[in-house]
Amino acid sequence: MDLHILNSDIQEFIDHNIGVSIAKLALQKNPFPEVEWMVVLNQIEAKTKAKDKLPNWFKTKKIIYPSKISIEQTSSEKTAHYKSTIVSGAKLIDLTGGFGVDDFYFSKSVSTVAHCEINAELSKIVAHNYDQLGIENISCYAGDSAATLESLYQKWDWIYIDPSRRNDAKGKVFMLKDCLPSVPDNLDLYFKNSDAILIKTAPLLDIAAGVLELQNVKTIHIVALENDVKELLWELHKDYQGKIEIKTINILKDKTETFDFIWSDQSQTPNYDLPQSYLYEPNSAIMKSGGFDEVATFYALNKLHKHSHLYTSANLISFPGRIFEITRCIPYSKNEMKTYLQDKKANITTRNFPDTVENIRKKWKIKDGGNLYCFFTTDENNNKIVLICTKI
């Protein structure tokens, strides 16, 4: 950790060049010979990334940033804040501390937090930044987290883990055993030190596969930010053997959409119907959850088709996702397409439909954008249809 980077002139230069092309800046001569030019450029690039994602870090003076990749991989402040609502108690240990954003928020819900990070340089940076941020109840430990867990020799209210996929893990299938640390192999160690474990994984992890790999899963939180699923949170409690609750969270600028249900509950049987006045498309967190029948039953909506995952109603209701008014429903045929959509401008979505958006645009010369929203889908009678809508 090069503290020369905190020189007031260098800090002023960094702030002045937020958002400036790094490729352009790299061609300039280094005006600060006491610091490597690439170190300065990295601070500019990483701080630019932090502007929207980490506003508390961005606005705080004398913050030191790690690599741009570390900033890209860390939790956003909004998702970290959500995680802090799950935990409570006196003591939490984070076995994969990273840049420390999650622990910053955990420290507001838990009395003392231990930040473990195998990269000694990053651990120093995080400790420095916590001082700048005025955080006093987080202790930073550099080195292997399993060894730290054993050496501290105490019972924790929570263990938090954000395992990273190993570089040598091949193929598209994402398994927890392919990550470091391997959570399935270390569960006995973790439960020896805590009765509650919170695991963060990438959205790529299949929920059913994760349940098979883990034990004592009580709740799975699917967290989306602006309708983009960012992370899955697995809440494990020692000796828990009950049903698993799925919580879907979509954090938007002006509100947060939530929908909860019991996983693998076969009691939900939705109704099916042809398109009515309104169309509903679930947000990405619900889509990831697989709770397609559950959301239909809860909101008393009719599904268009078992595999379409679009819903309809005669009367307008509030719903966690996009809502449209159906202005016209047409069969997917040459004559109908020529009459209503060919050479028009529209936003296109396909659900349970044999053709791609790209091919549909090319075939019917439909430009992207505008106020028209078209859903190419299949109805309950297995007919291919197009729903022409306006967004509500």
TrEMBL record:
This is Class I SAM-dependent methyltransferase. Residues 278-320 form the PG-1098 ferredoxin-like domain. Keywords: Methyltransferase, Transferase. One of its GO terms (molecular function) is methyltransferase activity. GO terms for biological process: methylation. The keyword Lipid metabolism does not apply. The lineage of its organism: Bacteria, Pseudomonadati, Bacteroidota, Flavobacteriia, Flavobacteriales. It comes from Flavobacterium hiemivividum. The keyword rRNA processing does not apply.
